[in-house]
Design a protein that fits this description.
This protein is an alpha/beta fold. The protein folds into two domains: 115 residues, CBS-domain; 108 residues, Conserved hypothetical protein from pyrococcus furiosus pfu- 392566-001, ParB domain (Alpha-Beta Complex), CATH 3.90.1530. Helix content is 31%, strand content 21%. It is built from eight helices and eleven strands. The strands form four sheets. The protein has a five-stranded mixed beta sheet, with helices on both faces. It has a two-stranded antiparallel sheet with strand order 1-2. A two-stranded antiparallel ribbon has the order 3-4. Helix 6 crosses helix 7.
């Protein structure tokens, strides 16, 4: 739940100070350098978290990394020590998320091992962790701004709750979404990277305020419920919300009324004809 103090909005400086060790994954599968390649292949086939395994010694010191590419055309009677990648890009736990994300972007890596000053493996920091860290800091700020706006406009006190809500119960306040962005939101939902919705509850009605693409993507994935920040407006203090008027004027009774705009079909967008 967002803090209700006047300084609760997230500032850029605060985000710059978020550390890697706040978001890194610490429950990591590892392998020793003496393990056989066949064993590693079987473990990767079973579903390795990072499409490979960090290689550590008995003191958890990071020695290298072995992934599926390293194992191509390698026979099973070889050890991990003979095939692993030894030159790794690593980060320290005190590095900021912003700087770690910059390293991921510039190197093309999807994840980075996190080690201490002695080289001990502490965890893994992925591009998904970077996205999640930003979501968890920007969403509460938007929720707080919405809450303040409602309290100022209606002279009332608004409670905020983070909970799952039924997608079918949402009343949209936006007439259209874009097809290409829907695909991105579907990917985020499937990989647990989606930002929670922001909704306003007024009596028995719940208005969707922020996250129409996410809600529509969830609907297309046949999800019944999704996580949201819900601002509860007391009906005894407020007769009608501006969101209610917007929905009524737009003829929006449910997400089924929201149009999906395929921007590629826009009349000002041209497609080239392939050579015959």
């Amino acid at each position: 739940m967002p803090d209700r103090s006047d300084d609760s909005n997230v500032t850029l400086m605060e985000f710059d100070e978020v550390r890697v060790d706040e978001y890194m994954t610490t429950d990591i599968e590892t392998v020793g350098p003496d393990a056989w390649v066949t064993d590693v292949v079987d473990r990767i086939k079973e579903g390795s978290q990072f499409n490979g395994l960090p290689v550590v010694d008995e003191d958890e010191q990071l020695l290298g990394f072995v992934n599926a590419i390293d194992l191509l055309e390698i026979y099973g009677d070889e050890s991990v020590d003979e095939v692993m990648t030894r030159e790794l890009v690593v980060v320290r736990p005190e590095m900021t998320v912003k700087n770690a994300a910059r390293v991921i972007f510039r190197t093309g890596h999807q994840f980075l091992p996190v080690v201490d000053e002695d080289g001990e493996l502490l965890g893994m920091f992925s591009n998904g962790d970077a996205v999640r860290s930003q979501i968890e800091r920007t969403t509460p700020s938007k929720v707080e701004s919405t809450r303040r706006m409602l309290e100022r406009n209606h002279d009332t006190s608004i409670d905020v709750d983070e909970r799952e809500i039924e997608i079918s119960s949402l009343i949209p306040t936006q007439r259209e979404v874009y097809a290409d962005e829907l695909e991105g939101r579907k990917y985020e939902l499937k990989n647990d990277l989606a930002e929670p919705l922001i909704a306003v509850s007024h009596g028995s009605t719940t208005f969707l305020v922020d996250g129409h693409h996410r809600a529509m993507a969830a609907r297309r994935l046949d999800l019944d419920r999704t996580l949201a920040y819900v601002l509860d407006v007391p009906v005894e203090d407020v007769d009608e919300l501006g969101f209610e008027m917007v929905a009524r004027r737009g003829g929006l009774d449910s997400l089924a009324d929201v149009e999906v705009n395929d921007y590629v079909q826009h009349p000002l967008i041209e497609k080239t004809e392939p050579d015959r």
